[in-house]
Amino acid sequence: MSQDAPAATIARPDLVLHLPDIHCAACIASVEAALARLPGIREARVNLTRKRVHLCTDGLDADGVIDALAARGHRAQRLDTDLLAGRDSTGRDLILRIGVSGFAMMNVMLLSVAVWSGAAQATAQLFHLVSALIALPAVAYAARPFFASAARAVSAGRLNMDVPISLAIGLATLVSLLGALEGAERPGWFDAALALTFFLLIGRYLDHAGRQAARSAASELAALEAPQALRLQGGREEIVRAASLVEGDLIRVRPGDRVPADGVVRDGESDLDRSALTGESRPQPVAPGAEISAGETNLSGPLTVEVRRAGSDTRLRRLAELVAVAENQRSRHSGLADRAARIYAPVVHLLGAAAFLGWWWGTADGWRALDVAISVLVITCPCALGLAVPAVSTVTTGWLFRRGILVKSHTALERMSEIDMVVFDKTGTLTTGELVLAGDPPDAVLALAAGLAQASAHPLSRAIRAAAHARGLAPVPVERLRERPGRGVEGRHEGREVALGNPDWLGMKADHDETVVGLRDAQGATYALRFAETPRADAAASVARLRAEGYEVALLSGDAPGPVARLAAGLGIERFEARMSPEAKVDWLRARRAEGRRCLMVGDGLNDTGGLAESHASIAPGNALDAARNAADLVLLHDRLTAVSDALAMARVATRRMRQNIWLSVLYNAVSIPLALAGLATPWLAALAMSSSSLTVSLNAARRMR
Amino acid sequence: MNVLVILMPVSLFLGGLGLLGFLWTLRSQQYEDPDGDKARILNDRWDELPDDGGPVPRAPR
């Protein structure tokens, strides 16, 4: 056994790293060998299933470990242990109950087969008593989740699926016990009670495991990018968790960093990418005194920021919490299984009661009547019904997960199958968020711009250099290059001042609909360089595929009308709205809902979270803000937009199969209920019907997907 | 039929053994990393657990 109790220490590691690339025995060996050689590590254990390594260290810094692994060719990222989902105790509890009920069921079944095949009198009674001895504790322990849930439902004055289940299990056990004690010749139902428990627990476990897998993957995504901040303390920089910042702290935000907290710029000038919050693709200049919010990205110059609000008080978080209210509304959507159960439970009770009364009135034999009633309850057992939906959703979410689509909500698949309209956000969803040079500036202009752009790491400068490189132009040499954060770059060319940057700074009249960079050349003439966003490589193909499959496609953006219209035209989207505030997006979706449309929202920014929560179903790309991923039903773990139509197609298949499964189990019941009502159902017939219907629905769920 | 008196406890005992085995695998966390365990079989190094003294250099077998 390789896993003899990894025990207390490694079960509670103080450092967890995510190793996205490991996949084989050699990787495990090389990672563990590399870590064993590192001083300060007491224990390291790779978990290949979760692609993680758990470390017990003597207060070691993650960076050193990550560097050591990088030297051996392994990419590693730190996972925030506080945000990881804890151990799954409910799942283990359910497995334990499955094990106990399975053991008891098999043993009792052995004894029952002996009785069915002819054991009589003293032998039969002995077998019944032994069965009772096994079944009573097993039922009492294994079926407790059903009893507890049924008790909760009844005390709240409701009926759920667990009420008939508990009634069938409890009555069958009780009546069989009385029979066994009396030595009566009536059939025993112990095996049926245990089989019922066993199959239903499996359904319950599948349901739970699917949800748990999604939840732990989602928390892993969150833990991967637990925001960190560079705090300035006595002239030194130290890395702290963003949540631990307090008002008045000074933090440094480097170019390329996401702002970790709300605050006011104290020092430095830069441009901020605010698209995650507003949807606007154009960078905004900031200078000392400007307010900035968590979630924005710093682009060009380093900033020193005084923290005003951090952690859960930031604007980002509070907006995200507002969304949670809208979330509740959708969680009231009841799944297929719930709707089936709501019809099913009263019917079963009525049938059971009718069978009891009918037989009592007909035969005046209370025991016989009770026996028939139990056989009705057991045979109408929702075994197959309990497996029908979870088996399908487990298979489907597993299939989608292997293709990088994370299903977070358990009714998401059913809602996805009802979609008739797909609504996209623009920046970061249909586009990469990166800007490229549009139009066709003269070579001389572009070469000079590229020469100036060399001084800057601003994304627009990078785009200019890339455009020049693509055209094979060498950047014109420019002397005395100076970057003026928030404004642009200036320098000297042919002995004269030249500059590249914000059109307002250069005294140009700019059209505020577009992203424009001004260039002033040595002669003092100005040129406007226009930029456009690049759509994702597969955006056009995905939109075309969605339209071909009969979905209407719409585009909602917070950006200016110009870029939105251009992108929509480029992708063939006819319905689009620009300058949408987050509230406007929600209103727009609400209006579509009122028209009876079922919208799927695909978005990544905070300005989309309201929409993600309001729409009938929602998808967020993996690079989306945490808030957006929380609000969405599905998260794409990679950046392929074609996954949207894959997910929609799978959802349709899955829902069709859930319906089939429900009808299959209804069919089984339709055949067996008349037999039970006629008093012809024997325990072995019940056992046969139960197992075969459960098997049928499981096989139907596991059938090849396409 | 007296043989049943012996056979039944025997069969229950054997079944119980299976159940205990299952509980043991569950308790010793053998379902935590199925992929890793599958791969570790191919590992030519000792896979012993380091005690508090830290990882022992692993000798090739």
Automatic annotation (TrEMBL), chain A:
A single Gene Ontology biological process assigned to it is:
copper ion homeostasis
Query: PANTHER family annotated for this entry?
Result: ATP7, ISOFORM B, CATION-TRANSPORTING P-TYPE ATPASE-RELATED
| Locations listed in the record | Cell membrane
Q: Where is the composition biased (Basic and acidic residues)?
A: 261-274
Limits of the HMA domain:
13-77
Per the UniProt record, the source organism is Limimaricola pyoseonensis
**Name assigned to this protein:** Cu2+-exporting ATPase
Instruction: Name the predominant localization.
Output: membrane
Q: How does it sit in the membrane?
A: Multi-pass membrane protein
Coiled-coil intervals: none
Automatic annotation (TrEMBL), chain B:
| Pfam families assigned | FixS
Q: Which InterPro entries match?
A: Cyt_oxidase_maturation_cbb3
- TM regions (residue ranges): 6-26
- Keyword annotations for this protein? Membrane, Transmembrane, Transmembrane helix
Q: What name goes with this protein? A: Cytochrome oxidase maturation protein, cbb3-type
Organism this protein belongs to: Limimaricola pyoseonensis
High-level lineage: Bacteria, Pseudomonadati, Pseudomonadota, Alphaproteobacteria, Rhodobacterales
